[in-house]
């Protein structure tokens, strides 16, 4: 009979996330993980597998705790408000990131995915989910009149995804509030219904 695990799996995965997130995949050794997770290397191999397997589990855990949680909270809001709240939270998190760790998913896209087909699929799949969240919000907003209809929801969702990735990468080297907020103002303006834009121009 297998012995029950003597550790909290979510807790040690969070510790693995923090280790990989701060140092990256290549710079993290299995010994680094053992020290960070409070486990022996043998326990890590028995419970999770090699470093690559731990990274996959840690990345999945990170995505669920970050993106999964954020979408769950914001999809309950009105469509345009959901998008704006999403980006405001991303900027707040980026500005409060004193270690400039960025987003672990985006870091994975840059460091690991280009050289690993499995991680290419994993990262691509999550980015597709992010894009789908934006598209759902845009389609709902276009239906209720709160988001402009002149461009397709697919194109606008792609623009939002690109803006999100740009913010996350740029914030690692230039975490400047004015700069990051300047990136989202034109995007938010793009979402404004044409009638609202015309009204604003008439009072300009």
Automatic annotation (TrEMBL):
<dbReference type="InterPro" id="IPR023772">
    <property type="entry name" value="DNA-bd_HTH_TetR-type_CS"/>
</dbReference>
<feature type="DNA-binding region" description="H-T-H motif">
    <location>
        <begin position="29"/>
        <end position="48"/>
    </location>
</feature>
<protein>
    <submittedName>
        <fullName>Transcriptional regulator, TetR family</fullName>
    </submittedName>
</protein>
<feature type="domain" description="HTH tetR-type">
    <location>
        <begin position="6"/>
        <end position="66"/>
    </location>
</feature>
<dbReference type="Pfam" id="PF16925">
    <property type="entry name" value="TetR_C_13"/>
</dbReference>
<dbReference type="InterPro" id="IPR001647">
    <property type="entry name" value="HTH_TetR"/>
</dbReference>
<keyword id="KW-0238">DNA-binding</keyword>
<dbReference type="InterPro" id="IPR009057">
    <property type="entry name" value="Homeodomain-like_sf"/>
</dbReference>
<dbReference type="InterPro" id="IPR011075">
    <property type="entry name" value="TetR_C"/>
</dbReference>
<dbReference type="Pfam" id="PF00440">
    <property type="entry name" value="TetR_N"/>
</dbReference>
<keyword id="KW-0804">Transcription</keyword>
<dbReference type="InterPro" id="IPR036271">
    <property type="entry name" value="Tet_transcr_reg_TetR-rel_C_sf"/>
</dbReference>
<keyword id="KW-0805">Transcription regulation</keyword>
<dbReference type="GO" id="GO:0003677">
    <property type="term" value="F:DNA binding"/>
</dbReference>
């Amino acid at each position: 009979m297998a012995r029950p695990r003597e550790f909290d799996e979510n807790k040690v995965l969070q510790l693995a996330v923090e280790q990989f997130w701060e140092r990256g995949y290549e710079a993290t050794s299995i010994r680094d993980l053992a020290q960070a997770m409070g486990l022996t290397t043998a326990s890590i191999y028995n419970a999770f597998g090699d470093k690559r397997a731990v990274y996959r589990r840690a990345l999945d855990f990170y995505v669920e705790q970050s993106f999964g949680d954020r979408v769950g909270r914001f999809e309950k809001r009105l469509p345009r408000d959901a998008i704006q709240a999403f980006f405001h939270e991303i900027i707040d998190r980026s500005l409060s990131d004193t270690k400039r760790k960025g987003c672990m998913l985006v870091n994975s896209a840059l460091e690991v995915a280009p050289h690993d087909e499995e991680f290419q699929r994993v990262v691509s799949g999550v980015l597709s989910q992010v894009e789908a969240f934006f598209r759902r919000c845009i389609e709902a907003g276009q239906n209720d009149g709160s988001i402009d209809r002149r461009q397709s929801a697919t194109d606008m969702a792609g623009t939002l995804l690109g803006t999100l990735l740009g913010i996350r990468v740029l914030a690692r080297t230039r975490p400047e509030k004015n700069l990051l907020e300047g990136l989202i103002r034109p995007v938010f303006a793009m979402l404004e219904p044409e009638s609202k834009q015309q009204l604003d121009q008439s009072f300009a």
